[in-house]
Model the fold of this input.
Amino acid sequence: MPAAPFDYDTAPERWGSLDRTTQLTGDVHAPVARRIAGAQLLPVVDVGGGQGELSRHLPPAWPVVTVDLSPAMLASAPHPKLRSRAKRLPVSTGSAGAVTMLWMLYHLDRPADAIAEAWRVLRPGGWFVASTSARNSDPELTDGYPPTTFDAEEAEDIVRGVFSDVTVERWDAKLTLLADHAAVDRFCVHHRLPASASARVTPPVLLTKRGCLVYARKETVPCLR
Done:
């Protein structure tokens, strides 16, 4: 199955169509940040962190570096920030308290390579966190998204190929409110849905979101299979 297109620099209008105000309970960044802060995991390496959304939810002065491959995304991210590929991070071995890869592993042909790199960067007891959607998310607008290399259906198994201490939090609920046709159209653009998808609903519409967060803790010996 192919990786999802990495088009943040070539199609800025797609990313610009993201409207976080439609999310009734917010995105995963806030709860992930609360867990990281509660466990005193520092420093944080936020891989694929784009514009630095996770850093904005962490306590002030919390040590976090945003890593991304897209210059357009990093341009508005707070410092410190690094441009790098996820599978080869310019970070010392065993130096991080947490490595996050939120909404990004499906852009990689081999997500396991980036997850193994996260394992290298983490110190023992450190946390790896990833998130992704399910292929059957947003059933009101689509009969299914094309498979990618890191969907919720296989995410846990992929992470377990590197980490042995893994927990998964899943969601399946009405979590997005599209109030009008303009909001529906923006959503379709952002999620690469055809314009015809908007004809399936009459706003306001509540979308069923399905996906997962995967948390993993680094143990002393890698669980490479």
Q: What stands out?
A: The two ends are 20 Å apart (CA to CA).
